[in-house]
User: Fold this.
Amino acid sequence: MHAGLPKYVPVNLKDIAAAGFQEGDEVSLETLKKKGLIKPSGRERRLPLKILGEGELSVKVNIKARAFSAAAKEKLEAAGCSVEVLPGRKKWIKPSVAKNLARAEEYFAKKRAAAGSEDAASS
Assistant:
């Protein structure tokens, strides 16, 4: 049903560079909307921001987005920009399933601890 629909509002580094951000400015979904770089409407209004790596960025800015492509992250860190990954929305889980997941995590944590102590004892 949702096949092919975008999960993010994509913005390339070249678009951020062309928008005229100054040194130390914050780049986020709100600031990009104010600059007129993105005009989300309809379903896109609720989508988070994703930074893509096409182009170069010469100004050091603070970027806040939900996701970054590998190329974008590499280029931003090379340019000395600060990158902040915003947290996503947690998926709702039925309480009984959550309880079972917690039990399984507890069980495997005990198993890992036991395996770790056996390795230490045999050394």
In short: The longest strand covers residues 9-12. Residues 110 and 116 are 10 Å apart (CA to CA). Residues 91-122 form one domain. The chain is about 40% helix and 15% strand.
